[in-house]
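Z., the sequence and structure:
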Amino acid sequence: MQFNLVPLGFFMASMASRFLFASAPDSWGVLDYPGPSWNQSYEKMLDEMVAAGYTGTELGPYGFFPTDAAVLKPQLEKRKLKLLGSFVPVVLSDPASAKVAVEQIRKVGDLLAALKAPFLVLADAQSPERDAISGRVSAQDSLTAAQWKNVAKVVEEAAKVAKGFGLDLVFHPHVATYVETPEECERFFDVTAHTGVGLCLDTGHCVYGLGDAVEEADKFKSVLRFVHIKDVDAKVLEEARRKKLTFEQAIEEKVFTIIGQGSIDFPAFFRSLAKNNYSGWMVVEQDVKFGATPIPPAESIAASLRYLRSVVSDLAATPAAS
């Protein structure tokens, strides 16, 4: 009997090319609206991403990076960074939101298309009502049947416009919104299945919203097209729930950690992704309050990537050990 032995290096190289890691401005505390966090140098931020070993970035809030493709493109190209997409939150249950979503997608669409970004990340907008119960949502707090029908209409319109720009529309379940919990995520994909929208699974938001990242990755493997990686300090999250903190207050209490220093089982998460044949981009994030980071973002994002690479390396070694 003849055995064809495949070198371990082959598996490691294959696995390394399968999972591509990007960074994002929120790891530097860049908020969704102009303020002190926007006074940071975006060029220095991009340099720090590259120094840490990342090969891509998300756009962040529209206006923080240059919105002129002729300006942003050379900045990314000289650093060999891939732009991945933009985050667009809208009030999905509001009948007027279809128009709002279309306007926002058109605003960023030309820039993303010019830079050949693959994704448009849609989310429900945060609301005071849901922020007040974030991480503690129960079934009676969810949308009505009529509101879910409107969600479907908004996503349908958004998908049409995104397609026109060559963008893959993916949906990001998000803390402090009406699509936060695993049950709400299931309902979302039930009512939007006809639109072709994919899932952007955020491990941190998933756990904050009473979910399990491994279970969600398995459940939605057929529509999982993009991943945001965050880690969660379970003790801080428990305290946030006990004290009924808002999402922003929990971030200030450092509910999100350097990847590998929290409670999420990333070896199990990556095994699930490998088993389900996921490949592609993952955005590594640590939501922080600007100016209140005991460890400089350049150091924390580098530590996160080192940990993730070690997880992928261990996973790649598994075939040789079996």
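The chain has one domain: 8-321. The domain at 8-321 is CATH 3.20.20.150 (TIM Barrel).

Let me know what you think.
H.
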